[in-house]
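Final report, closing paragraph on structural work. Over the funding period we assembled a curated collection of sequence-structure pairs, and we close with a single example.
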Amino acid sequence: MEMTSFPAARPEPLGLALGGNPVSFQQAIGVVRRRLRLFLGVSLVVIALVALLTTTAKPRYTAAATLLINQRESDVLHLSAPTTQDPTPPAPETDSSAVDTQAQILTSRALASRVVDQLHLSEDPEFNGALRPPSRLAAFKRMLMPTSGPSDPQLDQLREREGVVDTVLHDLSIKRNGLTYTIDLQFTSYDPVKAARIANTFGQRYLTEGLDAKIDEATNATSWLNSRLNQLRGQVQAADAAVEQYKISHNLLSAEGATLTEQEISNVDTQLATARAQQAEQDARLKTAQSQLAAGSNGGDIGEALNSPVVGSLRAQRAQASAHLADLTSRYGDKHPEVLKAERSLADIDAQIQSEISRDLSNLKAESTVSRTRAASLATSASQTRSTLAGNNQALIRLAELQRDDDAARAIYQGFLDRYKEANAKEGLQTSDARIVSQAKLPTAPTSPNRKLDLFLSLLLGVTAGTLSVLVAELLQRGVSQAAAAETEFRLPSLGEIPALSSTIEGRGARAKRLDPIQYIVDRPASRFAEAFRNLRTGLLSSRTGKRIKVIAVASSLPNEGKTTTAICLARTIALSGTSVVMVDCDLRQRSINRALKLQPSVGLLEVLNGTATLESALIQDEASSAWVLPLTQSAFSPRDVFGSDSMSALLDSLRARFDAVVLDTAPVLAVADTRVLAPRADVVLFIARWRKTSKNAIRSALKALENADTFVAGFALTQVNLHEQARSGDGAAHYYRAYRKYYVD
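Its predicted structure, as stored:
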C-alpha cells in the first residue's frame, strides 16, 4: 500500500501520561480547556454537598479531663518470676510504654461497658440507635434486606448494648501531652453537660478500678505465696532426708577412690598398647605383601618368601633346571623329548615355589588375626575394669546432685518466705497508679463542625474530584480530537477538518442546527464551511506528485461519520469551481446520495453495469451545482461482486474520459467488503473519521484493511468538528478562528 507517512512529533514532557502516552504542557492545557465545564461542574457539586453537610450538621461539644500517670513500679510483689537467681525486683517500665499502656486501658471495652452501666447510657437515644426514630436510609435498607425468621430478644438486647459501647468508644479519644506523663481524656457529645459528665466518669471509674485491681492482686498474691510456701517447705524436708539416706546406704561417710582398680587399669592399658603395636606390625607386613601381589609380583620378592629357607632351596633347584633346559634346547631344539621333559621339571619347581609363597602369605594372615583377637580381648578387659571404677565413683556424682537439689529447694523457699513477709507488710498500703489533675469542664463552644476546616476540605475534595473526572473522561475518550496527534499515530497526513455547520454560524442558535450542509455549501460559497471543502479538494489533488487525480473514493470505518455529506459537498465544491464532476453512489445497501438529494431514479449504477441501461440515461444532473450524479435504484442491492468486475473498470474508464473528477461514495470499510474491492480502482482514497466519536481501534482496523487491499490513502479528514469546543480546548486551527473569521461570509 502506498501511503504517505509523517515522523512522530516530540511533545514537551510534562511528567504526566494518559493511556501510556506522554502529555505535553500544551496538551495538558488543552485538556483543561476542553474539560473545563466538567471540572467546574463536578467540583461545584462536591463543594456544595460538603457545604450542605456542614451547614446541616448538628453541633457537637468536647469535654476533656487530664490524668497524671504515676511513674513508679506497679507490681510491687514481682510475682511473675520468683527465683533466687534474680532476687531483686525488676526495673520499672519505660516512660512511653507505661503511659501507652494506661491509654489502652482507658479505651478498653470493659471500662466503657462499666461507664455505660453506671450512667445508663443504653437508655439515651444519642448512643442507642434503637431508641431513635428510624431514618429513611435505615428504612430503605430494612426494606431491601428484611430479617428472616423470629428474632431472639436476648440476642437483640446484647447486640443493642454492644452497639452502645461501640458508640461511646467512638466518641472517646485519648491523647498524650507530648512526652509528659499526662493524658487528656476527651469525650464528644451533642450535649455539653453530658460530654463533661461522661469524661469525668471515665476518669473516676479508671482510678477506682485500677485501685481495686491492685488490692485484689495483692490479696491473691499473699494467698498464693502462703500456699506455695507450704509446698516448698515439704520439698526442702524431703531433699534433706534424701541426702542423708543416700550417704548411709552407700557408705559414703568418708568415701575414697579404689587404688587396686586403678593399678589394674594401668596394667591392662600397658598390655593393650603392646598388643596393638604388634597387631599394627602384622597388619603392615600383610598389607605390603598384598600390595606387591596386586602390582603384578609373582611373590618372589615378598619379605616372607625371601627369608624362607624352603623357597631358597627351590630357587637353587630352579636355577639348575633352567640351565639344563637351555643346554638341551641349544643341542636338540624345542621339540626334542628331553627338552620337553626338562620344561615339565622346571614348571614343577615353579609350582612348588608358588605353593610355598602361598603358605607364607596364609601364615601372615593367621598371625595378623591372632594379634587382632588378643588386642580386642585386652580392650574388653580394660573397658570392664573402667566400668567397675565408674560404678564406684557414680555414687559420689549422685550425692552431689542430691546436695545441689537440696540447696536449690532451700534457696527458693527462702526467697518465697521473704516475698511473703513483704506482701503482708504492703497489703494495706496500695495506691492508684494515676490521679486526676483537672476535672472536665463544661464546654462553651462546639468543636464540630469546623467551618474553616470544612471549607478547606470541600475545596480540596472538589478540586480532586474535578481532576479525577477530567482524567477519567480523557481515558474513556476513544475518538480522535487532534489532527496532529492522529497524523503521528496513523502516519497519514491530515487533509483538513470539516466543521459541524451549526458551529460555524454565530447567533442563530437552534435554527442553525436545522440547516442543510449540502445546500448551505451552494448558498454560502464564501463560508467557513465551504472553505473546508476547498482545502480538502486542494489537498486531494496534490496528494500524489506527478499523477493527475481524477477518481476520489470517500471511505470511513463505520456508518454515520458524515461520509455521504462529505462526498456530496466535495463534488459540489469541485463543480462550483467550473470543473466537470460526477458523484457515484457506491453504497449498495443504504443509497445515501439518493436520500440526501431526494432522487427517485428508475435506472442507476447497477443497470449500467448489467448492460440494461446506458450511462447517459442513468446520469442525473444536480441543478444546484451542475454536478452529475450516478445514483442507485430502489432495488440496487446485488450479492454479486459488481465492483470487482470488468464492467466496473470499463465504467470508471468512461467516467474518467467524460469528467474531470469522479467522487465515489462508498460503504463503511468495516461493515461490508465492497469498499475494499472498489478502493484500489480509485486514484486516491479520502478516509474520514468523526471528530471525538470514531474510536482509534476502528480507524486502525479500517486502514489495515485498505492497506491489505493495496489502496493509496491520500490522507484523512475529521468531520463534524465543533469549532467552539475545539477553540476552547486549543486542539486545532479553530483556536484562531476568531482572528480570521472576517474572511468568511456565513
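The chain has three domains: 60-223+433-438, 259-408, 478-740. The longest helix spans residues 337-426. We thank the funder for supporting this effort.
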